[in-house]
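Standup notes
- DV: blocked on the single-chain target, sequence here:
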Amino acid sequence: MKFLFLLIRLLVLELLFCQFFRVTFVLLSPSKFDLTLLFGCMRAGLDFDLGISLLVLFLLINIHWILSFVTPNFRDTIFYLFFFVLILVQSIAAVGDIILYKYWDSIFSVRAYPYLKDLEELTKNVSSFNIVFVAFYFGLISLLFFYARKIVGTSINLNPRWYVRLILILILAPASILCLRGGFREIPRNQSDGFFCDQRTYNIASINSTWNFFNVLIENKKFLDHNPYLKLSDDLMLEKINEMQRLGVNRQMELFSFTSAPNVVLITMEGVSAEVFKLHNGYNSYLPLLESLLDSSYYFTNAYSVGSRTEQGLGAFLTGSLATPFNSVTDNVSTLPDLPSILTSFNDRKYHTRFVFGGNVEFANMRAYLNEIGFDTVIDIQHFPKEKQQQSLGVPDEFLFNELIRQFRKMKSPFFLHTLTLSTHEPFDVPELKTYASEKKMYLQSVRYLDRQLERFFNQIRGDKKFENTLFIITSDHSHKLPNDCDIASKERYHIPLIIYSQRLNHLYKGYRDSSLFAQHNFPATLSYLMKWKEKNYLKFSRNHFSDMNRYAMSSFVNGYLYQTDTSSISYDYVWRPYDTTNVSLVKQHSYPQAILQYLADQIRGVRPIKESRSFR
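- DV (later): unblocked, structure below
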């Protein structure tokens, strides 16, 4: 009986720790605190916690049994050390969700799963503040556990008979499985069981982080085995895509007056939102140099990214790929040889092609992708001396642009020079800049810093004879939730700048503001048209912006998508933002992005080939 009471006290202690993790998540989230919602969150979360807690109890009984033949003192030490390790594992999952939610607006998901393969690189994305927070949090957990153990008591001399332990194990094993599954119901427990109110943060906080982590691992295998977006028949799906991808008639436009093959410089800024332009926010310009270029450039005022990750943006710009909420076709190394790319067109015309980045291109399979699509040279952090690797993720942008200036001057025409900046990536640890407690201030400071490097870059290359015959394209790989702390499903969250600047831009188009919806994945087809190339070295979904095609932009985020046309904008989060399925018109609108996701998922899984005889060009 005493052993049973000990287990009950341990169960209560485990449940209290689960609630502590939950309360911490809520308190550290940017959402407005609401005590009533917190209590509701704790109640909804108890259903998730119970399964994990019973599983912990099951493991503790087994370890107690295994240690029954050693001395009581040694047994108790190992027993509570094992319990502490289990608590620590849960706290790691909880603190991981806290940090992920801060940057990705989601907890651990299949989208985050690939990044676990490179933990060293992943930790470099964490700011000093977060490192201190993690250390403090684990210290606090250790302190709480130490005092909680004193309250619970010890198990010295508690050595129940073997059949008592066996009975408890036979009861706890199915009980924990049932609780983790959600009982005998037809549909197993899933994230939507945490949906108890209309406040997303409190709904997400109700989900036990440890349960979610292992659920994601199981769901990841399921994703590889089955198409998670299968909603339409194959014929209906292709019909919808054919309707969306109707090949439009190209407009006759002469944006440039190059007399020979132009050089192309593509500057992809890391995570810079179009909302930092005064043109869009209406009050302040954080990129004054870039904004000053607009009067002599062709500017797309309504350009949107395909997602919120760098590899998604690069795949869109160079290959014309779209992204699903979890991954994209460029993530799958086995499909890379089949991927078309705008690099093929450059290489066929004897262009010298170079990619320059101050970070590590091994992250997210970027090196494999960049090499496979045909860059002559890929320069990354390994190219720079150690003393210049002054940020946690690599080289500050001032050194990156020094290298870019050098490459611009030495490369023989014609060339395609693509660079990806770094300093506007979390944790914004640019040397010699101020440190603020406000993440918004850190972000905007890094944006201004990037603008100064761009100004220096253009000032130093203007005197080069190749400058006049070069087409500069300045854009972002994806947008950012800052400076407006915008919602993950809002248009602003994916709004990116896209500037075409050249001395050879025809006078008629200087200062032109193109307000038509521009989808990031349409970039390679659009560039191919502007370069007057006939071949189509890009994926099926890429279309020439300068045509009368059906215009749409699809932006994927964890658990959902934002789908825009010239006249409408809809979003769907299949866990947190269900839409009215009784609304026939709305269901029809959602069938188009759902058709895209269904098609893409089959490509990623290898069920549908990248190159198909049945085309919808």
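- Follow-up: The chain has 18 helices and 14 strands.
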